[in-house]
């Protein structure tokens, strides 16, 4: 039954990373409840699981966004099972996503302009401990990656899969293959263009020295592989932490959306198209102020 569901996801054109995420979420549910995919499950079982994720023993509770993602994986699985007559009752019928008092405030974090500038300084100055790593090569690559994530709003898997042929520097645009194999085109700003050109020029020099770079169709490569993997990019980004802010690749996509809303005077539809969001409700989340914005507003109250 489970393998049939995975085949269904593949037939729908779900990305490899999405299928892995669904698989891990479902295995977590089945393992935590000690059940099999075809066992009878009630809404009470699901609510118990939610309670255990919110109030675990000896470990930190999961983020609301993580729990909601897992619930979404369950909805998809049980909806498929009911539709294909694998099961008779859907335990997810009455299960709603969890909400925080300040809706999504903790799940969407972005960089201020000052933090982004500080990050560029850290990338330039941070010593690299890995053996055999060319310091200049790593700096140039990491800088180009940060700029592409921030100024084009790429997801980490989109960046990993980005090919040289996806860049059209003459027309200043990037072809991006996103979720569900949906293709979108993002214009390249002059700021980003300069960074891309600088990296490609350096990459061409490296191609003369390294065979795996010369043979690689991808924009970014690793020390030994023609493709910089999703995990490799995540590890690279996480190595550059700012004071009081732990970086993730998706944080730069959040930054892109937040900065673009400001640049377009909150034109949600433009930002939705640039970010490749299927639902405009996803984009509208970025209209909400961060906790620090709210704190600054409170501090600005008259003092007597």
TrEMBL record:
Q: Which GO terms describe its biological process?
A: cell division; chromosome segregation; DNA integration; DNA recombination
Kindly list the places in or outside the cell where this protein is found, as annotated in its UniProt entry.
Answer: Cytoplasm
Q: Which GO terms describe its molecular function?
A: DNA binding
Q: Which GO terms describe its cellular component?
A: cytoplasm
| InterPro entries, per the entry | CB, DNA_brk_join_enz, Integrase-like_cat_sf, Integrase_catalytic, Integrase_recombinase_N, Integrase_SAM-like_N, Tyrosine_recombinase_XerCD
* Entry keyword set: Cell cycle, Cell division, Chromosome partition, Cytoplasm, DNA integration, DNA recombination, DNA-binding
Pfam families linked to this entry: Phage_int_SAM_1, Phage_integrase
Q: Where does the Core-binding (CB) domain start and stop, copy by copy? A: 1-82
Tyr recombinase domain mapped to chain residues? 106-299
Protein name, as recorded: Tyrosine-type recombinase/integrase
Query: Which species is listed as the source?
Result: Cytobacillus depressus
């Amino acid at each position: 039954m489970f393998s049939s569901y995975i085949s269904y996801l593949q037939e729908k054109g779900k990305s490899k990373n999405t299928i892995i995420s669904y698989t891990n979420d479902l295995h977590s549910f089945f393992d935590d409840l000690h059940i099999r995919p075809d066992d009878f499950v009630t809404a009470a079982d699901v609510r118990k699981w939610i309670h255990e994720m919110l109030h675990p023993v000896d470990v930190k509770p999961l983020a609301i966004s993580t729990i909601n993602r897992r619930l979404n994986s369950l909805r998809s699985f049980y909806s498929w099972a009911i539709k294909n007559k694998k099961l008779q009752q859907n335990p997810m019928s009455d299960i709603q996503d969890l909400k925080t008092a300040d809706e999504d405030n903790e799940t969407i974090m972005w960089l201020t302009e000052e933090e982004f500038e500080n990050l560029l300084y850290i990338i330039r100055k941070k010593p690299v401990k890995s053996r055999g790593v060319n310091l200049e090569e790593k700096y140039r690559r990491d800088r180009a990656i940060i700029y592409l994530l921030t100024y084009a709003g790429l997801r980490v898997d989109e960046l990993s899969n980005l090919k040289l042929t996806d860049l059209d520097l003459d027309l200043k645009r990037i072809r991006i293959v996103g979720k569900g194999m949906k293709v979108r085109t993002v214009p390249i700003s002059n700021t980003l263009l300069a960074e891309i050109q600088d990296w490609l020029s350096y990459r061409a020099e490296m191609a003369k020295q390294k065979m795996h770079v010369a043979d690689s169709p991808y924009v970014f490569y690793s020390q030994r592989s023609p493709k910089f993997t999703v995990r490799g990019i995540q590890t690279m980004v996480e190595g550059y932490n700012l004071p009081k802010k732990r970086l993730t690749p998706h944080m730069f996509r959040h930054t892109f959306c937040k900065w673009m809303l400001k640049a377009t005077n909150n034109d949600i539809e433009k930002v939705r198209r640039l970010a490749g969001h299927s639902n405009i409700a996803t984009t509208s989340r970025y209209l909400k102020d961060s906790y620090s914005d709210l704190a600054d507003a409170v501090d600005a109250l008259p003092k007597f």
